[in-house]
């Protein structure tokens, strides 16, 4: 269940989003009103729209104006970030990926329909299209900016090479139109991101069939290893002090027959460092129809959400019958070094692991 702290934070942030959506609805209605009178066909500025709404609010009384909605939203924003100070999943993700305030708001915009379906209706209304019930670039830019100049400066955060899309935190909605407008382009959260932001630690579907996350309990004295080899393994711990500083550590190669204690040694190592262990069965992954690229992307995100040691066994699945590394698995090997925690590859004697490790730091 979502913990109380995170629930309070998300509810408060959704209340802020509601204020901004209310403001945008008022602006749209004001634009429509202006287009019906003497301003038809002319450029309508944000200032004109805000003025009309504020005037209407003053005349009717009891109806919030643009300025009031904006001030309430800003107060909520400042209060939430001061009160929670990086203690919730969304704020931790923002720190981990160095997200700007606008990028954090984009994640909130994408998360909202996963919590309450009312946002699908509101998004469709604001997108002026009943079929587009998802957040769009245009909607994000209008909700979280004050004027045209700011909207232009914020576009860079929604480009394909920007952080949110590059790391897979949000994914683009595939358009059925031949030449879709970039502004009309929609986006959504991966289920793994949705669950994490709500405080649920779950494996993505691309990993669930071939991986399991455990809290290792194996101690060094439990290992069925010689004293000499045990000492070598314990000395390797000094290498992984770099993990805390965000630097990439070398990959460990555990070469041995099944039953020789490879997974137990990996567990003892992770336990000593204080990390859970993600155990991945490459044979199960290869037997599935899951694309390797999706597996890699989800693994990279998961490891940043939930720092862990990564233990990969059945590494013979990387190779064909002749012992050559399969083309798709070059990508896997190149991305494993990007993981922060210790990465341990378990293989049997004779496996040609030297080839994919060329140019990579390994022990």
Description:
This protein is α/β, with parallel strands linked by helices. Helices cover 49% and strands 8% of the residues. It is built from 16 helices and seven strands. The protein has helices at residues 4-36, 46-60, 66-84, 89-96, 101-115, 118-126, 137-143, 148-154, 163-166, 191-197, 205-208, 227-235, 262-273, 282-287, 292-305, 327-336; strands at residues 170-172, 187-189, 211-214, 252-255, 277-281, 309-313, 343-347. Helix 16 (327-336) links the parallel strand 6 (309-313) and strand 7 (343-347). Helix 1 (4-36) packs across helix 2 (46-60). The two termini are 41 Å apart. 30% of the residues are buried.
How do the strands and helices of this protein lay out in sequence?
Layout (H helix, E strand, L loop, with lengths): L3 H33 L9 H15 L5 H19 L4 H8 L4 H15 L2 H9 L10 H7 L4 H7 L8 H4 L3 E3 L14 E3 L1 H7 L7 H4 L2 E4 L12 H9 L16 E4 L6 H12 L3 E5 H6 L4 H14 L3 E5 L13 H10 L6 E5 L16
Parallel strand pairs: 4-7, 5-6, 6-7
Antiparallel strand pairs: 1-2, 3-5
Summarize the structure.
This protein is an alpha/beta fold and 363 residues long.
Helix content: 40-55%
The biggest beta sheet is recorded as:
5 strands, mixed
Note the beta-strand portion: 5-15%
Structural class: alpha/beta
H/E element string? HHHHHHHHHEEHHEHEHEHHEHE
List the quaternary state of the chains: single chain
Give the count of helical stretches: 16
Order of strands across the widest beta sheet? 3-5-6-7-4
